[in-house]
Amino acid sequence: MIRRLFLLCSAVLLGAVPALAGETRVVTDALGRQVTIPAKVERVICSGSGCLRLLTYLQAQNLAVAVDDIEGKRNQFDARPYAIANPGFRDLPVFGQFRGEDNPERILSLAVQPQVILKVNPEMGTNPVDLERKTGIPVVVLRYGDLGRKRPEFYAALRLVAQVTDRAERAEAVIHFFDARIEELGRRVAGMPDSAKPRVYVGGVAYKGPQGFHSTEPGYPPFLFLNARNVAAEGALTPGQTVVAKEKIVEWNPDALFLDLATLQLGEDAGGLHELKTDPAYQTLDAVKTGRVYGLLPYNWYSQNYGSILADAYYVGKVLQPERFQDVDPAVEADAIYSFLVGKPVFEEMNRRFGGMAFKPVPLR
Questions:
Q1: Which residues, at least 6 apart from 38, have a Cβ–Cβ distance to it below 8 Å?
Q2: Within this chain, do residues 101 and 214 fall inside the same structural domain, yes or no?
């Protein structure tokens, strides 16, 4: 308690304003809690995987006064468009570890105190109620959601962050953007019978770190948007990321293979690309023999990269149904998506970090 009082006093002396000084209002967070926050919020921190991405989508990244430690790490392979577009995040003070491992003492020692802590995935890392109690700063909990069945959670998170930061109009624009893009993709592929569609598989899908080619997702969003014939969705596999036996992939023998380039993090002598190049079993696949293996921007990287999911979908559509995507340049489309969501065209920079293998056949020889 003495330590906390000392830190609180230090924060005041350094010019920070107490979190609930002045007028207040109440918001209801994703846990159904009534959280009292300042009437005008001008300083926040974002805790947990993807939280700062949501703030950036709402063009409110300037409100962040500190970051978790992932923002300061230097990684050759970084596939977070929001961070690439905002290199200044690396210069902000650190308040805790990534995946929500917040440090109350470090938060209280910040020279500029946040008025609100936005926190996703409350089950991971520091408990939000404990965090609020230890810091005296209101904690607003979000559910990150996805672009599939949990899209309402994603939209609710955007609206909640917008309510806190006074960005309601921007939140609705972002929601409309996703709905319109997903609807457009569906229109482009409408009416094609399954018998005319190639059978496809995506490997190397990251989950809490890089994975090999056997890592896939039956509900892979780009395939869902395009109503593609995902061989991993035809069996009784569970939703979400899953691991498939190599023998099963050989048995499926898909017409086209896609490689999530997050797998490159495992190094030149491991990962999905290495396996496709060297494993005798994968060498029997028709798609490997004919060069129908295509590189995709990483999907999961500090939670789901929603913009990259859309960008990948346009490229997958161009590969599978080129006649319906004749007017689409996937790289140009990607930068249009990133420019809207994170404020800058970052496709070329991200592609450079992954060896220039995005949106083209990957070299297997």
A1: 19, 20, 21, 22, 23, 24, 25, 115, 116
A2: no
pTM for this structure? 0.92
The side-by-side arrangement of strands in the sheet containing 44-47 is 101-102, 94-97, 64-68, 44-47, 116-120, 139-142
Tell me the pLDDT tens digit for each residue of 226-284. Answer: 999 999 997 655 667 889 999 999 999 999 999 999 999 998 899 999 999 999 999 99
Q: Give SS3 for 37.
A: strand
Residues 280 and 154 in one domain: no
My answer on whether 24 and 136 are in the same domain is yes
Does one domain contain both 132 and 199? Answer: no
**Residues of the domain holding 96:** 2-166
Asked whether residue 182 is domain-assigned, the answer is no
pLDDT at residue 6 greater than cutoff 50: no
Place of tokens 């190397």: 204
What residues does 140 pair with on adjacent strands?
118
Answer yes or no: are the C-beta atoms of 298 and 312 closer than 8 Å: no
Cα of 347 vs its chain's centroid, Å: 15
Q: Which helix (H) or strand (E) holds 315?
A: helix 306-320
* 175 in any annotated domain: no
